[in-house]
């Protein structure tokens, strides 16, 4: 696929694939495709940022630990967003 050969702004293809694979391995991946794309683009670093990107966060992530696990996955796989 031609898309995989192109660089995604400041992220490498490997970083994006690493994140997608990590999210896919989660027992109950609760992110939609659009939300996953937003997470890759925005790279939220705290639970407040996640709550702004994900609809119905309280229902889909009932415990704070689930949100923290998602934040850990994001920060482990993706570099912080560029400074504006």
UniProtKB/TrEMBL annotation:
> What are this entry's molecular-function GO terms?
nucleotide binding
**InterPro entries listed in its UniProt record:** HRDC-like_sf, RNA_pol_Rpb4/RPC9_core, Rpb4/RPC9, Rpb4/RPC9_sf, RPC9
Cellular localisation? Nucleus
Please give the GO cellular component terms listed in this UniProt entry.
RNA polymerase III complex
Q: Which Pfam families match?
A: RNA_pol_Rpb4 (PF03874)
Q: What is the first-listed, main subcellular location in coarse terms?
A: nucleus
UniProt keywords, alphabetically: DNA-directed RNA polymerase, Nucleus, Transcription
**Can you tell which superkingdom this protein's organism belongs to?**
Eukaryota
Q: Where is the RNA polymerase Rpb4/RPC9 core domain?
A: 1-81
Q: Which GO terms describe its biological process?
A: transcription initiation at RNA polymerase III promoter
Family the UniProt entry places it in: Belongs to the eukaryotic RPC9 RNA polymerase subunit family.
Function (record text):
DNA-dependent RNA polymerase catalyzes the transcription of DNA into RNA using the four ribonucleoside triphosphates as substrates. Specific peripheric component of RNA polymerase III (Pol III) which synthesizes small non-coding RNAs including 5S rRNA, snRNAs, tRNAs and miRNAs from at least 500 distinct genomic loci. With POLR3H/RPC8 forms a mobile stalk that protrudes from Pol III core and functions primarily in transcription initiation. Pol III plays a key role in sensing and limiting infection by intracellular bacteria and DNA viruses. Accessory protein for the calcitonin gene-related peptide (CGRP) receptor. It modulates CGRP responsiveness in a variety of tissues.
Q: How does it assemble?
A: Component of the RNA polymerase III complex consisting of 17 subunits: a ten-subunit horseshoe-shaped catalytic core composed of POLR3A/RPC1, POLR3B/RPC2, POLR1C/RPAC1, POLR1D/RPAC2, POLR3K/RPC10, POLR2E/RPABC1, POLR2F/RPABC2, POLR2H/RPABC3, POLR2K/RPABC4 and POLR2L/RPABC5; a mobile stalk composed of two subunits POLR3H/RPC8 and CRCP/RPC9, protruding from the core and functioning primarily in transcription initiation; and additional subunits homologous to general transcription factors of the RNA polymerase II machinery, POLR3C/RPC3-POLR3F/RPC6-POLR3G/RPC7 heterotrimer required for transcription initiation and POLR3D/RPC4-POLR3E/RPC5 heterodimer involved in both transcription initiation and termination.
Q: What is this protein called?
A: DNA-directed RNA polymerase III subunit RPC9
């Amino acid at each position: 696929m031609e898309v995989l050969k192109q660089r995604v702004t400041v992220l490498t293809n490997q970083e994006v694939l690493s994140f997608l694979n990590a999210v896919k391995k989660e027992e109950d991946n609760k992110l939609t495709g659009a939300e996953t794309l937003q997470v890759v683009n925005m790279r939220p670093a705290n639970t407040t940022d996640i709550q702004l990107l994900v609809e119905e966060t309280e229902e889909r992530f009932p415990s704070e630990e689930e949100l923290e696990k998602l934040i850990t996955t994001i920060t482990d796989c993706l570099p912080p967003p560029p400074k504006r």
